[in-house]
Structure to design on (125 residues):
């Protein structure tokens, strides 16, 4: 089982349930990661994270079973990779992983709305 940090379209309970195949975010813990900023992927409404000044709010999934993880990985697609990062929660710091697109795919704008539209099921963490 892996701990995942969600910051984009998977924050939407309906999207998460559809692709993870389990109850929507029931065990998720509010979390923040420092030293990152949310950026929109060029030509899309979908987000990624870039290193930089700032803080990104999201949710930590403390226990993701292998089957759910495989479904989420398929949702993210080959263009995203899992990157280790640290998040702060009300229970203290935790190590997690988040799906990020390569930095060159990011637009110059800094912030994309969390829970961006989910019409394309092959994009966004």
């Amino acid at each position: 089982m892996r701990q995942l940090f969600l910051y984009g379209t998977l924050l939407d309970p309906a999207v998460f349930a559809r692709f993870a195949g389990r109850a929507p975010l029931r065990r998720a813990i509010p979390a923040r990661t420092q030293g990152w900023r949310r950026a929109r992927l060029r030509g899309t409404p979908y987000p990624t994270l870039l290193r930089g000044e700032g803080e990104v709010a999201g949710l930590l999934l403390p226990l993701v079973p292998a089957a759910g993880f495989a479904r989420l990985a398929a949702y993210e697609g080959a263009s995203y990779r899992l990157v280790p990062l640290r998040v702060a929660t009300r229970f203290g710091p935790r190590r997690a992983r988040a799906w990020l697109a390569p930095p060159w795919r990011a637009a110059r704008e800094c912030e994309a709305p969390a829970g961006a539209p989910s019409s394309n099921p092959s994009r966004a963490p």
Q: What stands out?
A: The chain has one domain: 2-105.
